[in-house]
Design goal:
The chain is mainly α. The protein folds into 3 domains: about 80 residues, no CATH class; about 70 residues, Cytochrome Bc1 Complex, Chain D, domain 2 (Orthogonal Bundle); about 90 residues, Cytochrome c-like domain (Cytochrome Bc1 Complex, Chain D, domain 2, Orthogonal Bundle), CATH 1.10.760. It contains 15 helices and no strands. The N and C termini lie far apart (about 65 Å). About 15% of the residues have low confidence. The structure holds heme C (2 copies). One heme C binds next to helix 12, helix 13 and helix 14.
Length: about 260
């Protein structure tokens, strides 16, 4: 419809300028506002063309500039991953704070601390909950209500809080040994190589490896068991599931105790 109209108008180009009646007729026939505007723009451009070619170029440049932010805006959402607004995030996360703590330091052992966690890691988990890739009744329901922008903002808010801190000492050094050295006989990689010293993360450039030192013990243990049993299977290439598969309940318990103390 729109193409045919434009074609018609182009064919009638001369007439359009010479006979105002055709121009008026064409516009009356067009109901859509957008189409109306497009045709008007074409006509204007055509008129100017008759006078001076450079004016057309000028008009086109303006048209491009004014329409560009629309497409650039869409791309910037993807490019800006992990660059949410923490001030907006504080407001948007009021409900979350009820369980995760005002500054991301939750009280319940089953609810993870988010304080000082990598922004991009939090964002990934929220996306995974929203998509149902990481199953959890409460969090799936929470995440489904959030837009991409909301997720970026709340992730940013929790990430800028003081990094989570643990409870202190542990009874045995079994967990520390496994964490630092892994277990070659069972082909278990050392956790420290990805999660950093004391589980505090590697560098600011490695947000895919979450902070786990200072996290609640019950939460950590549940995640490790869930990875092993494939109840949680959202790590890239199932890397975490493959790493912990050979480990016993006792090993996982020792690791969780060590990490919770950091
Ligand atoms: C009713 C309590 C509750 C509320 C409200 C809640 N959460 Fe959670 N959240 C949990 C629990 C419990 C878990 C652990 C789920 C699991 O085992 O996968 C969790 C897990 C998470 C995780 C995963 C952390 C990690 O280390 O992998 C993130 C991120 C998260 N929540 C963010 C949020 C955000 C953002 C909101 C608000 C929109 C929110 N939560 C609201 C209870 C809650
Ligand atoms: C090759 C790198 C690598 C190694 C080695 C590794 N991890 Fe991970 N770990 C990851 C990645 C990546 C994730 C995040 C997965 C995701 O996006 O859900 C993760 C997530 C976790 C989580 C979930 C954190 C949370 O907040 O929910 C725990 C707990 C964990 N790892 C513990 C360990 C332990 C214990 C070891 C050693 C036995 C270990 N990891 C070794 C890469 C690794």
């Amino acid at each position: 419809m729109s193409l045919r109209f434009c074609q018609l108008l182009l064919v009638l180009r001369r007439d359009v300028y010479e006979q105002n009646s055709i121009y008026a007729y064409a516009l009356v026939k067009i109901n859509s506002f957008a189409l109306h505007a497009t045709v008007k723009a074409i006509l204007w451009a055509e008129m100017i063309f008759l006078h001076k070619n450079f004016l057309v170029l000028f008009g086109l440049a303006i048209l491009m500039v004014t329409t560009m932010p629309v497409s650039r805006g869409d791309e910037s959402i993807k490019q800006d991953d992990g660059k949410g607004n923490p001030v907006a995030g504080k407001e948007k996360s009021k409900l979350c704070q009820g369980c995760h703590g005002e500054d991301g330091n939750s009280i319940s052992e089953a609810t993870p601390k988010l304080s000082g966690q990598y922004e991009k890691y939090i964002l990934k988990q929220l996306r995974d909950y929203k998509a149902g890739i990481r199953p959890h009744e409460i969090m799936n329901a929470m995440a489904i209500e959030l837009s991409e922008e909301d997720m970026a903002d709340v992730s940013s808010y929790f990430s800028i809080q003081v990094k989570m801190k643990g409870s202190g000492s542990v009874d045995t050094d079994e967990g520390e040994k496994l964490y630092l050295k892994g277990d070659r006989s069972q082909m278990v990689m050392a956790c420290v190589s990805c999660h950093g010293v004391k589980g505090k993360g590697l560098t600011p450039d490695t947000p895919m490896y979450p902070v786990i030192g200072g996290q609640h013990k019950d939460y950590l243990l549940k995640q490790l068991i869930d990875y092993r049993e494939n109840e949680r299977a959202n790590s890239q290439n199932s890397i975490m599931s493959r790493i912990v598969r050979p480990l016993s309940d006792g090993d996982l318990e020792a690791l969780a105790s060590y990490l919770a103390a950091q």
